[in-house]
């Protein structure tokens, strides 16, 4: 018992430092939200039929308390309005689990102008490009009228990245991603049955107010497909946020795993990202929630390594979905490194893994 108590003392000290980092990130949200309120006002004033009725939602490490660096991206979801909601479309799965295309329902006579093709399919890429380009023009107007933010922006493949400067002179990065509302859980093919989800999601799904979205862009590897311009992918970032916010124990396990990953360079070397840890943690949520922190962290690394030894990381929310998509050698090598880290990292040396002031950005990209 004394051994575990000592372990948790060391680990709690590290977590206190990580919580201080997240408190600093929280302190930046006021400026982020002030900018978004201004942006939304300009979007309404612009009068564009799509932009004027869009809304914002928030996801990622900055909104989960799972940041391991003060330099953390703010993931902003730009949610499209009617008629671009899933209830207006029939859903067709394409290529692999979690990839879809949408067809306008026959019973609705009037199709959205310009974004549904002759066969009735939503032109997802065209809609995404249009929205991002219009958003970019509005950001230009905000930049002109609000020079104190020192706004810079860059159009990415699937999003608009906006940099603003806050009152402390810190540069904040906002990744604004275009998404549209999805149907209810049971309406999608190959979804994990609700009874197999962790109990933390039961009431969340039952109240019909949960946020589940389509991203208007699949992974880049689908660019070779003839119907790439029609494809959407499922986004579970707000469900991940809910799960992380509901359990200190699970959130702590993810934080410590991300800290080790950042120290070992697994994102750079293998493309291992924050959501990979979170999906494994959510699959084993009931077990991790209630374990002492060190045991939960060790168990999370164990389960992640076991999945990689099977050459995948399970999407969990969707049956038979691999969200890692790396070749067998990469999976084997990463699994080996994770098991080595599980052996090497001790409670009394985790302090050495804490980031310096010039550490890399904590990004969910």
TrEMBL record:
Source organism, top-level taxon: Eukaryota
Domain Mab-21-like nucleotidyltransferase: 63-244
Pfam family, any one: Mab-21
PANTHER family: CELL FATE DETERMINING PROTEIN MAB21-RELATED, CYCLIC GMP-AMP SYNTHASE-LIKE PROTEIN-RELATED
Family designation: Belongs to the mab-21 family.
UniProt-recorded name of the protein: Mab-21-like nucleotidyltransferase domain-containing protein
């Amino acid at each position: 018992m004394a051994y575990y108590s000592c372990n948790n003392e060391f680990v709690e000290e590290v977590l206190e430092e990580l919580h201080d980092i997240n408190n600093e990130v929280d302190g930046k949200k006021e400026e982020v939200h002030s900018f978004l309120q201004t942006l939304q006002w300009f979007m309404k004033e612009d009068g564009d039929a799509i932009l004027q009725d869009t809304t914002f939602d928030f996801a990622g490490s900055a909104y989960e308390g799972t940041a391991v660096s003060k330099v953390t991206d703010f993931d902003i979801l730009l949610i499209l309005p009617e008629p671009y909601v899933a209830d207006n479309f029939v859903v067709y799965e394409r290529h692999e689990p979690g990839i879809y295309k949408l067809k306008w329902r026959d019973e609705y006579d009037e199709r959205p102008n310009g974004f549904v093709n002759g066969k009735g399919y939503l032109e997802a890429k065209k809609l995404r490009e249009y929205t991002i380009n219009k958003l970019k023009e509005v950001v230009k107007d905000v930049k002109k009228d609000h020079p104190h933010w020192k706004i810079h922006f860059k159009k990415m493949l699937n999003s608009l990245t906006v940099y603003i400067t806050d009152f402390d002179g810190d540069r904040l990065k906002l990744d604004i991603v275009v998404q549209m509302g999805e149907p209810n859980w049971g309406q999608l093919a190959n979804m994990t049955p609700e009874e197999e989800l962790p109990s933390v999601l039961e009431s969340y799904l039952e109240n019909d107010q949960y946020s589940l979205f389509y991203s208007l862009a699949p992974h880049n590897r689908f660019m070779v497909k003839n119907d790439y311009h029609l494809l959407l992918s499922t986004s579970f970032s707000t469900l991940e946020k809910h799960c992380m916010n509901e359990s200190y124990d699970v959130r702590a396990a993810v934080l410590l795993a991300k800290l080790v990953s950042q120290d070992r360079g697994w994102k750079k070397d293998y493309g291992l990202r924050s959501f990979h840890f979170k999906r494994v943690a959510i699959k084993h949520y009931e077990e991790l929630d209630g374990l002492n922190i060190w045991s939960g962290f060790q168990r999370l690394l164990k389960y992640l390594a076991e999945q990689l030894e099977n050459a995948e990381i399970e999407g969990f929310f969707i049956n038979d979905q691999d969200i890692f998509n790396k070749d067998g050698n990469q999976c084997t090598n990463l699994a080996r490194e994770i098991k080595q880290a599980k052996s090497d990292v001790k409670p009394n040396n985790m302090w050495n893994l804490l980031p310096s002031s010039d550490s890399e950005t904590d990004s969910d990209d």
